[in-house]
Amino acid sequence: MSMSKESKLILLTVILIAGAFVVFFANRLLPQNSIFPSETGDLTILLWLFYAIDIGFIVALVLGARTKKPSVVWFSIIANSIFFVLLSGLIFLLAIANGISEP
Questions:
Q1: What are the pLDDT digits (tens) for 9-26?
Q2: Among 13, 19, 4, which Cα is nearest to 62's?
Q3: What's the per-residue H, E or C state across 38-85?
Q4: Is 28 exposed, middle or buried (0-12, 13-18, 19+ CB in 10 A)?
Q5: How far apart are CA 103 and CA 41, in angstroms?
Q6: How far apart, in whole angstroms, are the C-alpha atoms of residue 66 and residue 72?
Q7: Rounded CA gap, 49 and 68, in Å?
Q8: Cis (ω within 30 of 0) for the bond into 37?
Q9: Dist. CA 9–CA 73, nearest whole Å
Q10: Is 6 helix (H, G, I), strand (E, B) or coil?
Q11: Residues 66, 70, 75, CA angle at the centre, nearest 5°?
Q12: Cβ atoms of residues 26 and 34 within 8 Å
């Protein structure tokens, strides 16, 4: 069962979105042993995980823009840039919150 390159790029975008939601809601899903954020209010783990996902959106954007199918190119450019901008805004807000909460 082999997937085409276009299907893999769309699947990568969906996996990155799902990963962002899992990281965002991890504290609510597993509150008893969660490390994001820790009891001290340190948000650096969340920041690094979101930063890695943000880089994944850039990689998906570049790989999608290099395909030959116009529909995949447009989907990649529109979807990945929107998610990149939204996640970058969330990272910025988390960085501000982390800076305010640090002693």
A1: 999 999 999 999 988 887
A2: 13
A3: CCCCCCHHHHHHHHHHHHHHHHHHHHHHCCCCHHHHHHHHHHHHHHHH
A4: exposed
A5: 11
A6: 10
A7: 31
A8: yes
A9: 10
A10: helix
A11: 80
A12: yes
Instruction: State the residue for tokens 């890695």.
Output: 52
How far apart CA 64 and CA 78 sit, in angstroms, is 10
DSSP state of 13: H
What does the block give as tokens for 90? 């969330």
pLDDT digits (tens, 9 = 90+) for 23-71: 888 766 665 555 555 555 567 888 889 999 999 999 999 999 999 889 9
| Token duo for residue 89 | 């805004």
